[in-house]
Structures are given as structure tokens and as C-alpha cells.
Write a structure and sequence with these properties.
The complex is a heterodimer. By secondary structure, chain A is mostly beta strands. Chain A is 11% helix and 37% strand. Chain A contains 1 helix and 5 strands, in the order E-E-H-E-E-E. Chain A has a 5-stranded mixed sheet, with helices on one face. Chain B is globular. In chain B, helix 1 runs parallel beside helix 9 (217-237). Chain B is of the alpha/beta class. Classes of the chains: A mainly beta, B alpha/beta. At the A-B interface, strand 3 and strand 5 of A face strand 4 and helix 3 of B.
Chain lengths: 70, 260
């Protein structure tokens, strides 16, 4: 079976991904799900729903984490 | 003596809250934060660098199970951006105690009070517990308290300016009129500034650059810890009255007669 790639925007940059869900996307990038938060098309994706949250072409994803700040 | 304080039902011993930004390294962040004795730390929320997912993260150096993370909205200039940022922070961290700041333009980054109130209303309606950075304006401060903010945090001076507490009279009046904790947030430059903020009666002090931009951040963190303790003790002790005339400290009786 051929692996399908879809074009999304990830943190402001275009990116082709094989992931079909947010959970797969985080795995594909190599991120610890406990340390990030995800927004898809300006809506929060709750951590408990990453596996069910399907990705579609053109989706705008934001993946954020805590950094030092005052 | 138990001199702890409480915000949003959480009790803390340290009256110093420190930011975790502007350090040279995460190792330095960890060392200075530990030296400060702070129990609450402010943190920012930013995009992950997806090309370097294994990069060390703040949580590995300043663990959230040891420190209470207070996510901020630094860099947000509209209510919409601030609310969006804190919703993401709540999802990332799983807690609802936050620091709201909606900032005006450079060079002062002065609190935008219209945007701040708009964001505060939306956040409180959404279940957040909002510690709010604000102008040293007693009317605005009272309004934020009445809206339901859990702590009022007027600036001492512009963020990162190190100018100290430039309007101590209004900071004190905000504290005197408030029923929720009042913290001086921003502007602290050195230990005496932090002590002054506490001598005014404030519940705590929030600072970042004063430690991170000192030549020796860890030593300055220690100084700040002691300054906050000293300022708090001086406030509780009640300072003496000021008088322009001298009032001799040594008794006048039993003085040996002057020669000649």
C-alpha cells in the first residue's frame, strides 16, 4: 500500500505529513504528548482525543509548549 | 510565625514569584529559580521547534511538580490572543491559575487596560483564575477585583526596565483598597526595590529580569529572596516615624562633663 501524504500548515510553515490523526502527527514529529498542547484550525484538541482527531488537507496545526518567560 | 499567603485557594510560603525567561541556559534558569526560594514561576507558551523535537524543555529543568507554573500571555497585544494563549496553556499544563497581561506597544509595553479587562472577563467566564498585570491605577485595579480576578498585579515600572517602584503611593493605595492579594509585578531592578514593594504592604513581588540580567543571577536570586523576607518583616514590624530633626539614641544622663 502506498503511503498517502497530506499537506498541512504546522506552526506557520507548510508541511507534508503521513499522519492521519493528531496522535500520529505527534509520533511522526517525535514529541512527548504530555509536554505540548495542540490547536487545529484555532480550536484546542484535548489530549484525550488526539487519536480520534483526524487530519485533513489544509489543516492549520499549532503545537506549543512552555518555555522560559517573565 | 506562619506568614504564608493565599491566592485562589492555594497557600504559599514564599512571597517571591520569579519569571523563567532571559537566562543564558536552562541550567542557569534552574539554579537561579532554586536560589530564589520561589514556589511559583511564570512561564510563556510558544510554538515547539518541530525540527528539533528532542531539544531540552523547561519542564525538565524547572519541574512543574516542584513549582507552580503560572502561564503568562507575554507578547499578546489583544484580548483575543491572550485568551487563545491561555486556553492552550491550560491544555498543556492542566491548570487554570494564569497570569494575564495584555500589552500596549513598545517602548513601554504598558498594560492595555481596555484589552486586559476584555480578556479578564472572557477568561473568568471560562473558569480561569486570573492574576492580572495592570496599570498602577486604583480605579482599574478595583474594577479588575470586582470582575473576579484572584490577584491584582500593578507594575512597579515598565517590564524589564529595572527602574524600580516608581509610584509607591499608588501601589500602596491599590493594596490598601484590595481584598485580594496585590503583587508588584515588573520594574524591579535590585534587592532594595523588592524590599520597598514589600514594605508598602504588598502580598508578594513578581520579577524576572532583575535576576536573569544580573551579572551573577544565582547570587541576585539569593539577594531577592532575602529582600522580600526583609521587606515583609519590616512591614509587619511597623516602621518608626520620620522627623527631620535629630533624636539622640544614647541617654543624656550620666554624661561626663565637657572639658575646660
Amino acid at each position: 500500500m502506498e503511503l498517502m501524504e497530506i499537506a498541512i500548515t504546522l506552526n506557520g510553515a507548510p508541511r507534508s505529513v503521513r499522519a492521519a490523526s493528531v496522535a500520529e502527527l505527534l509520533r511522526e514529529i517525535g514529541l512527548d504528548t504530555r509536554k505540548v498542547a495542540v490547536e487545529r484550525n484555532e480550536e484546542i484538541v484535548p489530549r484525550s482525543t488526539y487519536a480520534q482527531a483526524a487530519l485533513a488537507p489544509g489543516d492549520q496545526l499549532e503545537i506549543v509548549h512552555f518555555i522560559g518567560g517573565g | 510565625m506562619d506568614d504564608s499567603w493565599e491566592v485562589a485557594g492555594r497557600r504559599f510560603t514564599s512571597r517571591l514569584i520569579v519569571g523563567t525567561g532571559r537566562y543564558k541556559s536552562l541550567e542557569e534558569t534552574a539554579a537561579a529559580t532554586a536560589a530564589s526560594g520561589a514556589e511559583i514561576v511564570t512561564v510563556a507558551l510558544r510554538r515547539v521547534n518541530t525540527s528539533d523535537p528532542a531539544a531540552p524543555m523547561l519542564q525538565d529543568f524547572v519541574p512543574p511538580d516542584r513549582y507552580t507554573y503560572l502561564p503568562n500571555t507575554a507578547g499578546c497585544h489583544t484580548a483575543r490572543d491572550a485568551v487563545r494563549t491561555l486556553r492552550l496553556a491550560r491544555e498543556a499544563g492542566g491548570w487554570n491559575l494564569v497570569k494575564l497581561e495584555v500589552l500596549g506597544p513598545p517602548p513601554y509595553l504598558y498594560p492595555d487596560m481596555a484589552g486586559t479587562m476584555e480578556a479578564a472577563a472572557a477568561l473568568i467566564a471560562d473558569g480561569f483564575e486570573v492574576m492580572v498585570y495592570c496599570a498602577d491605577d486604583p480605579i482599574a485595579a478595583k474594577r479588575l477585583e470586582e470582575m473576579g480576578c484572584v490577584a491584582i498585579m500593578p507594575l512597579g515600572a515598565p517590564i524589564g526596565s529595572g527602574m524600580g517602584v516608581v509610584n509607591p503611593y499608588m501601589n500602596r493605595s491599590i493594596k490598601q483598597n484590595a481584598r485580594v492579594p496585590v503583587l508588584v509585578d515588573a520594574g524591579i531592578g535590585t534587592a532594595s526595590d523588592a524590599a520597598l514593594a514589600m514594605e508598602l504592604g504588598c502580598d508578594a513581588v513578581l520579577l524576572n529580569s532583575a535576576i536573569a540580567h544580573a551579572d551573577d543571577p544565582v547570587l541576585m536570586a539569593t539577594a531577592m529572596k532575602h529582600a522580600v523576607l526583609a521587606g515583609r518583616a519590616a512591614f509587619l514590624a511597623g516602621r518608626m516615624r520620620k522627623d527631620y530633626r535629630a533624636d539622640a539614641s544614647s541617654p543624656m544622663s550620666g554624661l561626663i562633663p565637657s572639658a575646660g
